Amino acid sequence: MPDQALIVVDMQNDFCDGGALAVPGANAIVPRVNRLIARHDHVVLTQDWHPPGHASFAASHEGAEPFSTRQFPYGPQTLWPTHCVQGTRGAQFHPDLEATKAELIVRKGFHRGVDSYSAFRENDRKTRTGLDGYLEARGFTRIVLCGLALDYCVAWSALDAKQAGFDVTVAVDPTAAIDLDGSRNKMLTEMRQAGIKLS
Ligand code: VGL
Ligand code: ZN
């Protein structure tokens, strides 16, 4: 399908087993993600790519615990364990990920003071990554998403893709969720209500 692109979200060591922000079940989805990649002609990868001392890290805030929430200039922001620091092994793609055929790698979260779950718009909901313009310029109208984490970067990317006017499907089997305070069910409901197909 020439008008369809697969976006594989954040399949990086730090989100996999033994990583700094390991998502339960992450390693088990690698073969499923690879099968989906094999079935698509056009593949985009996203890569969480934080500078040292990024504002989303609990360690950047005096006395803050990972998975707590802080008020940022753009609203509430979850604080995470230090993860996906630029140039580190944790930020590299899982070694078994079939990454060769990817036509674009989108890096996100590189502005020190702003987190970016979505591959389209950062958490301030204003700063754009340019991915929508790229996809439009390539003639893609249908987007399929998979990867990590279902309830954060996959869901936020899917919602933004839908809002940008793309026909959006999330392949749920090749995803895994962090599930912080019921975030998995909450985001599945939000995606369904937005008209995103879950397959
Ligand atoms: C993610 C939390 C922080 C993700 C990235 O890939 O879902 N979650 N950074
Ligand atoms: Zn991150």
Tell me what you see in this structure:
Strand 3 (69-72) and strand 4 form a beta hairpin. The protein has helices at 26-38, 131-138, 150-163, 183-193, and strands at residues 4-9, 43-48, 69-72, 75-78, 104-108, 142-148, 167-176, 197-198. It has a 6-stranded parallel β-sheet. By secondary structure, the protein is of the alpha/beta class. The chain has a single domain (4-51, 81-198), classed as Isochorismatase-like (Rossmann fold), CATH 3.40.50.850. The radius of gyration is 16 Å and the shape is globular. Helix 3 runs parallel beside helix 4. The model has no long low-confidence stretch (mean pLDDT 98). It is 23% helix and 22% strand. The chain starts with a strand and ends with a strand. It binds pyrazine-2-carboxylic acid and zinc ion. Zinc ion is lined by residues 48, 50, 56, 80, 83-84, 109.
What topology does this entry show?
Blueprint: E1 4-9, H1 26-38, E2 43-48, E3 69-72, E4 75-78, E5 104-108, H2 131-138, E6 142-148, H3 150-163, E7 167-176, H4 183-193, E8 197-198
Parallel strand pairs: 1-2, 1-6, 2-5, 6-7, 7-8
Antiparallel strand pairs: 3-4
Helix pairs in contact: 3-4
